[in-house]
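Fill-in record for FUSC family protein.
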Amino acid sequence: MTPARARPPARAHSWSRALRDAARAGVSVERASLTPLIALRGAVGVGLILAWALWVGSPALAVSSAFGAFASGVASFQRSWRPRPALALGAAAGLAVSSFCGYLAAGHPALFLVLLAVWSFGAGMGWAIGPVSGVVSALTVAAMLIVVTLPTSVAEAAMHAGIIALGGLLQATLIVLFPVRPWGNRRDALADALAAVADYARRLREDPYAPFDPQPLMEAREAAAVTPRQARRRPRQLHGYRTLAESIRPVLASLADPVVGAAAEGPERDRVRELLRAAATVLDATARAVRRGESVRIPEQALDVLKVPEDGPVLPPGPARKAALRLIALTEEVVEAAQEPVEVAPSASGTGPAHLRRPTGPGLLRVALRAVRRELRWSSPVFRHAVRLSAVVSAAYLLAQMLPQQHWYWGALTVVMVLRPDFSQTYQRGAARLVGTIAGVGIAGGVLALVHAGPRLSALLAVLAVGLLYLLMPLGYAAVSACTGAYVVFLLGIVGEDWAQTVWERIALTLLGGVLATVSYALFPAWESPWLRDRLARWLTANSRYAAAVFAANAEEPSKDRQRAVRQALLDARAARMEWEEATARADSEPVRHRGLSRRKAAEARDTQITAGRLAMLLEAHTPNGPAEPEARDFAAALTEATADAAAAVRERRPVDWAPVHAALARWQRDAEHPGGVALRVADLLTAELDEFAAAVG
């Protein structure tokens, strides 16, 4: 029943190897699809506000307006399920407030340093809310560093803050007036989930223990959470497919499994392969239609396979027959859903289908405050990042003040844009920013030297640079840094800055800021390795809670509360698994030994937990319509009790003991009314996996 184990990860990185790998990853160009229309819309927003500010105001005011529109556009490009206009407006509001507050304190160096330190700490804590909040918060620090050098009075500072907000408002307005592929990111998330399940069905034809990455399903669930206003406007095609994909996935695994499904060889297995191929065809066709916003076209051959034959049963009696019939019923639901119109659902009362609710207004603020409060502890990587960011930005500001360069803020700006909560991103972005900045400012300086551009031509070149930035943003941070460097050089050309001095200052101060950022992480790290045991204990607890909920469901009457408990436990288990996967990915790139858990043990423990989660999923697919296994309740209770002690043992590096689970299994095997039942077989296999886990971390 246990699939082949994965190979253990490579040995720990040395500092030289880790830095080399990070630098190589940072300057590499990623393969991604480009969105020229969206890039054009963002560049038009920058161009309009820049032209208007040059017409009615001064070059300095134009630079502020361009920065506001540029940063708001960058915010709207971040991967988020929030409405793009809201991202642009939120970024613009933060930029305006930070620039105005910075100017008020700029005349008092000590006060400005305190404000900069506090604001940087808050920007670092923004990562507790999410990556988008972290990026936007960093942009507000950048605004404070740059824009304070432009006004000459409080009134002008207020005007600059207003023009920054106006730039964000313009970007939001363009997004509303000229939508490009509306609901496109949600369509992609749902289509990716359907395609992932289709690919899983195809792989199960060859390997009944094929692994499945739940990330697409998790992203589809996040995308499905909408505000009440969005729910009224959401296309019908985005309503039910995610639930069907979630329901089909465990049925596919149960049908393919040789223990609780069809035999490993013979006519039954051939029929299973036909069903899996047909199900994959249906899901692929649905994913393609959802992505494109068109009607679903399903091949007739696949539909013929997914029918109950008139001359006999689908499979011999038993769990395999039940799984096959369930798969046929679910694919019929997919076909029926495909006949629904794809247009936007009409605005109606609360009688429409339920939806996952996304908080708005005060609710969103409460969620953000809770997230920040959870990270206000010394062990949190986000808190340590905030402290590091505050200290290093302040140090860069003080050091730059001692240098003769006019654009002192570029060093601190580099720190803000490079530092991230984890090692790999920090060093990747440091290398990418240095290489990209040298390329960008070098090219922009050469262009200015050749054309002798005035304010208007410099503005046009800046708009072209920002359009290229928006277009190439999916390719990686090196491309973004090159375009940003060129954009800044062209902007400073608007106010008459000498391009030669600008180029060399930016390169030198970028190098200074990058060195400060990378050295600070080495001196004050937030390594993930020591926390691997804690992450593993969380995953073990969540996985066991899911398994216990499924076993308990086999001993109880069907109810919505039972289904809700199983569903919530499954979501918690997925979240814990993704937290573990992200933690080990960060730890594997760190140039330190795994002081919490060796790489080999981490790989072995991961395999056991993936298999344990798969076993619980198989049993969930065979949950009866009534209480069939009363002994399952005792097994679930023993599993819950033993897991609490096992999680503590993992954290404290004690031997893990599953004696209560073994005792409950022995009683079940002795007293079982159905010795060959699916639940008992799964319990036996799950207990074996728990023993494998104990050996892995012992």
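KEY FINDING: The chain is about 70% helix and 0% strand.
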